[in-house]
Amino acid sequence: MAGSKFRPDRGLTARMVMTMVLLFLVYVAFVAGLVLAGLNIWLVLVLVAAFAAFSYFSSDKIAMFAMGAKEVSPQQAPDLHAMVDRLCAMADMAKPRVGIADTDVPNAFATGHSEKSAVICVTTGLMRRLDGPELEAVVAHELSHIAHRDVMVMTIAGFLGIVAGFLTQAGLRFAVFAGAGGNRGNNSGPAPAVVALLVVLVSAVAWVLSFLLTRALSRYRELAADRAAAYLTGRPSMLGSALSKITGDMARIPTRDLRQVEPFNAFFFAPAFAKKGFSMNQLIATHPPVEQRLAQLSDISRQLGRGA
Question: What class does this enzyme belong to in the EC scheme (predicted)?
């Protein structure tokens, strides 16, 4: 966040560092467990490195493609580009690429592994529903994710979960295959199936831990982005209004459309499916409760009002 005028958030920085350290420890144990389970260490390292490189350098392209989003030029979307230009000037940050996704689901997201690869994307449904100041507040929220660099952390954390999930599924399939063929030979025995099940166990534990760590960071980073956007624009009420509109209109979107974009919940401004109030589901939610976000914005409004 060096050089940015977005409000610093030491709590977010501390959580990002802690999450990355814990994830590193989890996956050191993950690789060690796979090796002890019988897998070749070089095979494990090559697999993890390949997934890491692919996810890290292609995260922006994958997200844009999956959402059906396209990068737009200033000539194609002059108003949106002007808004991003103005906010980047206010925040004293480099301008990211700008994209639009043609979907009625009202949302926005930012992605990319670095400032140079960063892209901010809004949906046509969002632009249709929000007034200018409301849309500006949402764009400021997404720009703060880039400035805070939590997009990069979420990208790295996400690929680790993908690796563990892939190995869990592969291990289950191999265990079934090895178990079916294990009785055909005198010396083959159940060893391949046992190894595969050990891989599944280690991978599943790593996936659960990375999932919980990433979700905890995801919830906090949304609150941090709300705060940063509210202080930068000086109009937290506009962000609260946008949040209320989006969550209210989300209930009118066909469930099929929401299911299609649900995998992107962790990167969205507002989740496709949200639970009201606190429940056990909030422990694995990508976003804090809407009520908590609105309460925080109301507090900021009062603070700014006293300052004025």
Answer: hydrolase
